[in-house]
Amino acid sequence: MPVTSALAEVSFEGKTIEWIIPFSQTGGSDTWARFNAPFLTRHLPGHPEIEIVNEPGGGGTRGPNTFASRARPDGLTIMGTSGSTQFPYLLGDLRVRYDYKDWKVVMVAPTGGVVYVAPETGVEGPGSIDRLVDQTLVFASQGPTSLDLVPMLAFRLLGLDVSYVFGYTGRGDGLIAMERGEVSIDYQTTASYLRNVVPMVGTGDAVPLMSWGILDENGLMKRDPTFPDLPIVEEVYEMLHGEPPSGPDYEAYRDFNVAGFAAQKMVVLPGGTPPEIVEAWRQAWRDIFNDPEYQNSVGPVLGAYDQVTDRAAEALYIEGTTIDPTVRRRILDMLSNEYAVRLSDQ
Hints:
InterPro entries: BUG, Bug_dom1. This protein is an alpha/beta fold.
């Protein structure tokens, strides 16, 4: 039976769909999922309820491990991935019990992120970032194989002295640590930054420094359209060092930035899901993207990024789950030598 014919028979009426988010509440992935959930209820056939299931732990691996072992191919369980589920997979983390090749992607949402510091650092904005050079900063991290690898590589590239406190279960916890004065530097992905940090900036409790930027059509890094007034890491490097960044450290940062943000958030179904159910999910996302209410509200919440499905999603899916072996080797050596993190293939 053609997919278009079978699609009419797909209905989730009276059902509850579980959306696994492998991170704590209030973080960027949680914000992203909770924003999208009502629109999925509106546009999926049968208008099912969407239940967000936060399952943090394992540096972002616990949730996908659960999904891989328990989710049935019936369209009633989906997972939202992030760089913190991609990176352990790319690096061969011992905790990974999932394989992206086994899943069906139905939507990919690029995103950005902003680094900010406590006002106690004495920094007033990007123009005074040089005041950080002689300080020891503290950063709350989910772990060196999580999405936090991007700021770790950026801080290393810029020459900042940062002490990492590992073991946090999500970026939302890093935000709480900043609010409590336990750390002095943090970053949040765009959705969380807009929701949680912008008010802190308004009250003088946080100072934005830079964004991760986005890729343009020529593959070059440029300023994030959601944060056009903030410099990107490349600009900050040139401010501090008088020349554009280059060399292996920059290549490693850039590759993981692309893998972690250009293709950061994905919605996947289990392998073996029937084609008509996969198509029903993709059609729902097409309808969401064309929903006038969605179009009018998505930017202020999630940022100015094009979320995609179909072939565009599949292309980003491949890009976000593939990395050059030379860069991978360099990162593994760095993790082993500098953080005593040894992974399964070393």
